[in-house]
Amino acid sequence: MTLQRISGVFFVIFAATMIWGVIPAQTEPVYPDGSIPPEVLPSVYAAMIGLFGGALACQRGEAHTLDLRQAAKTTGVYLIALAGVLAMKHFGFLLAAPALALGLLWLVGERRPLWLAIGGLAGPLLIWTVFEILLGRLLP
């Protein structure tokens, strides 16, 4: 089995877990004012991940050996994301999201101060502004 197929199957399982497990458990089943339910957008994104994962799993590819350095980076991304989600629960979005974004940017090799500021500070602030101020939806 190739790495592409393994990755594709992983993302199909991930998407299914999100659609039928995580998203329903983390959103309100009925939104009172008749607007779009809060689970729609994450479900659409999860479905897209599943579709692209399925396409990746169906591709024919050459067998590659596992690159341990790349596997370590992938594990690092997972652990930073997990720590960021847990930190959001305890410290709130405004404190945890910039640290999460900066950690991920640093891990993937970004060192330019302007891009670190945009991705690590301006990005989370923009997300907070859109959700909290414009949409009136509380972030953790």
TrEMBL record:
<dbReference type="Pfam" id="PF07331">
    <property type="entry name" value="TctB"/>
</dbReference>
<feature type="transmembrane region" description="Helical">
    <location>
        <begin position="114"/>
        <end position="135"/>
    </location>
</feature>
<feature type="transmembrane region" description="Helical">
    <location>
        <begin position="79"/>
        <end position="108"/>
    </location>
</feature>
<keyword id="KW-0614">Plasmid</keyword>
<feature type="transmembrane region" description="Helical">
    <location>
        <begin position="40"/>
        <end position="58"/>
    </location>
</feature>
<dbReference type="InterPro" id="IPR009936">
    <property type="entry name" value="DUF1468"/>
</dbReference>
<protein>
    <submittedName>
        <fullName>Tripartite tricarboxylate transporter TctB family protein</fullName>
    </submittedName>
</protein>
<keyword id="KW-1133">Transmembrane helix</keyword>
<feature type="domain" description="DUF1468">
    <location>
        <begin position="6"/>
        <end position="140"/>
    </location>
</feature>
<keyword id="KW-0472">Membrane</keyword>
<keyword id="KW-0812">Transmembrane</keyword>
